[in-house]
Design goal:
The protein has 884 residues and is mostly beta strands. The strands form three sheets. It has a 34-stranded antiparallel sheet that branches. A two-stranded antiparallel sheet has the order 11-12. A two-stranded antiparallel ribbon has the order 13-14.
Length: 884
């Protein structure tokens, strides 16, 4: 923000204060209006409107992600209050209407409430949110930089900062270097929410409640597919929900209310992603020799030995515009994904609240819901080349159907045995299950033999429909062995099936019961204590399996021989001891089929038994409340728990919680508040080594020594830590292009990560799996302060500051990973001046500063340059407020 603009804005405020100073009449007038009486109503209104001036330096996308406040005219606030003087309004007794944010702010809100004594209470809310997200480290592939020239001090590709022993580790770099400046999952969406609630006869023994909500969220977004170089495709998201509610409350006994509610939710999702050479040529950047645009994806590491992406040499001719692509690389010519999701969920709930008995009060509820989720039209079409399977085009479709059935109930009661002794009990029951099914149909198309072209330039081997049978389709295209004639599909040993029909069945469910019992006793009017016990029983059931109902492998490809059934014997039908698996049948045309609708073939690794995990959790609680003096209140709580099993490796089995809260009021105008909250979790057994803690320490002080001065300040320290053993596969073999000395290792592990051979049972990392202790640590220092002072009778000033200072570290398997949100400062100072001009009219200037600065290792050695996420922005607001 330029100094000139700040000076001009502050000058206007000071000029107004100086000019209006001598006007004693204005000094005597209140800044707020008491409203006007019209008929039977007192009417009060206020409106605040003005202009916001915004200036941002640095990363505009990060600013919009965090703040998203721009320049322009704004309606900062408008309120209307109408109140019946004697509660005898004709249509209503009270009306309240409020609004803020209109004119361009990311959040616009309108609220309306109307009520008529004894007859109805109606509430309405509309809200619009602009959701922008583009934090460029989110889902960023962190592509490496270009290699240093051969012969330089750090020749080769760099895995870590060079040392005298290892000037460079070849194989982890890219030519060319392709940094990704934006988040691959960026989005810009608008959400509109409407809520309507009506209560009929709110004060009667029987009252009725009706409600309706409509939510709509839509806008542009980006989507990545895990194939080849993981391209990023633009798309459009659309979500909408209609929710209906009806309920009734009945006072069946004195001080007892029975309630019944019915909810109906309808959810609709229609998402689509499309990338077409003719529609969006600018997104590609490369072309084939015939001018067809090519998308190489977002992952670029061309000299990585394990898997160079998009390939080792993606650019064939660099002098053309755009550059001519190597057709043998991972790349895409077009992509589309379209699907619709429909969900219907009815829910019913019954509740009862009662304090009918003098010393006993209780609440209870029970509910049931069933959700049916259906995707009838999933359709994905990809035209490109995935080199590891030689696939040229694929289509995936098929319906999916999932349901969720839930039953829950709870009961709580408090019994006052004496004036000092109370017994509390809380019981909870929760049982839900989610069965699901996906029937998939997938085709993979491969390049055609005999075209003289390679990879992406190769025409597809497309079947001509001369027969309704699979054998007829293939025989017309590629009729005889060795199946390498013109138009025969070019498979490799790693190619997937040409046609796949599968059914995937999944199930996840949980049954939970818990009970918490607590006794509380007041020893004196200043000291009370409580002790309790929690028991929880949880059963988690899961199942997942896939069956082939018709997986077909066609022969064809360079190098096909009778020994491998001309490449038809691959994948699930690969030969075992020179014979086909029992589930695979060889057809007359040379193709091989696994499974059928009447002969399901289980995928490898299927476990058709349902896995059940039972967990018992026990915890003891103790708390104390003390008031040693009237000005001081102390609260302390301790909870110690133990689980006899864990569902995942990061679920703790031992839990400890400690809370202390103190409030001190040395004066009527002074309040000091302090709190300590510590949570410790662990599952410290071999191959798990899970330790966690979450600790926070805070204090806040509020001082109001006079009606013209208030001061508040505080500080919060937050410390989070987590560790667990992990296994990973990180073995790279190098070819060293650098000149001697070239005594470089043939394999490496991430720099600074101590590793051993993997000992975790069931870890799917292969024979070369490594194990290490993964840690995450983060601390956050948050400080805030604000002073509000009536400098003169009609001038109110406010000055404040808040800021977070975050520092942390984490085990990283990628040496190019920046510290990101583990190390940053976020500062938000602010100030305002308000001048009461005349009878409900005031002028206000406000200043807000937003400063985000990343610290730590923001540009690791060897990382392709990524734009800094730092920004600083100032907002000046100039507004008039009129209350009448």
């Amino acid at each position: 923000m330029s100094n000139r603009r700040v000076v001009v804005g502050l000058g206007l405020g000071l000029f107004a204060a100086a000019f209006l100073g001598p006007m004693s009449r204005a000094q005597d007038e209140p800044s707020e209006s008491k409203g006007t009486n019209q008929g039977n109503y007192n009417i009060q209104q206020s409106v605040e409107f003005g202009y916001r001036l915004n200036e941002v330096k640095g990363n505009q996308d990060t600013y919009n992600t965090f703040v998203n406040l721009g320049s322009g005219l704004r309606l900062f606030d408008y309120t209307l209050n109408m109140r019946s003087i004697n509660h005898q309004g004709i249509l209503f007794d009270d009306l309240n209407f409020s609004n803020f944010g209109y004119g361009g702010d990311p959040n616009d809100v309108s609220r309306l409430r109307i009520d008529k004594n004894k007859w109805y209470d109606f509430q309405l809310m509309f809200r619009r949110d602009k959701n922008f997200w583009d934090y460029n480290l989110w889902a960023n592939p962190l592509n490496p930089a270009s290699p240093n020239p051969v012969g330089s001090a750090t020749s080769g590709c760099i895995l870590s900062p060079p040392t005298a022993a290892h000037p460079g580790l070849p194989g982890y770099c890219s030519t060319p270097s392709m940094p990704q400046a934006n988040s691959l999952h960026a989005l810009d969406q608008t959400r509109r929410m409407q809520d309507y609630d009506l209560t009929i006869l709110p004060q009667s023994r029987v009252r009725f409640r009706l409600g309706f909500s409509h939510y709509r969220d839509e806008g542009g977004a980006f989507f990545t597919t895990d194939s080849g170089g993981m391209p990023d495709f633009p798309g459009n998201n659309s979500y909408s929900t209609n929710a209906y509610h009806a309920g009734v409350d009945v006072r069946i006994l004195p001080r007892t209310i029975f309630s019944y509610d019915q909810f109906l939710n309808y959810f609709k999702q229609d998402n689509s992603y499309l990338e077409s050479p003719t529609a969006t040529p600018g997104l590609y950047g490369y072309q084939l020799a015939n001018g067809t645009p090519v998308d190489f994806g977002v992952v670029w590491s061309t000299q990585t030995p394990a898997e160079a992406l998009p390939c080792a040499a993606p650019i064939a001719v660099a002098t053309t515009t755009p550059p001519t692509a190597n057709p043998s690389c991972n790349g895409f010519l077009s992509y589309s994904q379209v699907y619709s999701t429909r969900n219907y969920m009815p829910t019913e709930q019954a509740r009862v609240q009662s304090n009918y008995f003098q010393k006993f009060e209780m609440t209870a509820s029970a509910g049931y819901s069933r959700s049916d989720n259906f995707v009838p039209n999933f359709n994905e079409v990809l035209d490109g080349l995935v080199t590891r399977s030689a696939t040229r085009e694929s289509t995936t479709g098929g319906p999916a159907d999932t349901s969720r059935v839930s039953v829950n109930a709870d009961w709580s009661g408090v019994y006052a045995v004496t004036d000092k002794l109370r017994i509390e009990d809380f019981y909870r029951y929760d049982n839900w299950r989610i069965p699901g099914m996906w029937a998939t149909f997938e085709t993979n198309l491969f390049g055609a033999a005999g075209s003289g072209q390679l990879g992406l330039a190769q025409p597809l081997s497309v079947f001509n429909q001369v027969s309704s049978s699979t054998a007829g389709l293939f025989a017309a295209l590629c009729p005889v062995a060795p199946y390498n004639q013109v138009n025969c599909p070019l498979h490799t040993t790693s190619s997937g099936a040409d046609v796949t029909n599968e059914i995937t069945s999944q199930f996840l469910g949980q049954s939970l019961q818990s009970n918490t019992f607590q006794v509380q006793y007041d020893f004196t009017r200043r000291i009370s204590a409580r002790v309790g016990y929690l028991f929880l029983d949880r059963n988690i059931s899961q199942f997942s399996a896939t069956w082939d109902t018709g997986e077909t492998y066609f022969p064809g490809g360079t190098g096909a021989t009778a020994a491998n059934d001309y490449f038809a014997a691959r994948g699930d039908c690969a030969l075992v001891a020179a014979a086909l698996p029992s589930s695979c049948i060889k057809n007359a045309d040379g193709s091989i089929t696994e499974g059928s609708p009447t002969n399901l073939a289980a995928e490898a690794g299927n476990d058709t038994t349902r896995a059940i995990t039972t967990i018992h959790e026990q915890a003891g609680t103790f708390g104390i409340t003390a008031r040693p003096i009237d000005q001081l209140t102390l609260n302390g709580d301790v909870e110690l728990g133990y689980n006899d099993a864990s569902f995942t490796r990061v679920d703790p089995r031992q839990m400890q919680s400690y809370k202390v809260h103190a409030t001190y009021k040395p004066k009527m105008w002074a309040v000091i508040d302090a709190a300590v909250e510590i949570h410790e979790n662990r599952d410290d057994v071999i191959t798990v080594s899970n330790l966690e803690h979450d600790r926070s320490y805070s204090f806040n002080t509020t001082l109001m020594p006079s009606s013209s001065l208030s001061v508040s300040f505080g500080y919060n320290y937050w410390d989070v830590y987590n560790q667990a053993d992990i296994c990973f596969n990180y073995s790279i073999t190098y070819t060293n292009p650098a000149p001697p000395p070239s005594t470089l290792p043939v394999s490496v592990t991430p720099p600074g990560v101590a590793t051993t051979a993997c000992t975790i049972t069931g870890a799917s990392v292969g024979a070369a799996g490594l194990e290490t202790l993964s840690t995450y640590s983060s601390t956050d220092h948050f400080a805030h302060a604000e002073v509000t002072w009536n400098l003169f009778k009609r001038i109110t000033t406010s000055l404040g500051y808040s800021g977070s200072f975050v520092r942390g570290s984490s085990t990283s398997l990628n040496p190019l990973n920046p510290s990101g949100t583990l190390d940053y400062n976020y500062m938000l100072p602010f100030g305002s001046v308000k001048v009461d001009i005349y009878r409900g009219l005031s002028y206000k200037m406000g200043w807000n500063y937003y400063g985000f600065n990343q610290e730590g290792n923001t540009t690791p050695f060897g990382l392709a340059p990524i734009p800094s996420e730092d920004f600083n922005g100032s907002n000046l607001t100039f507004s008039f407020r009129y209350a009448f």
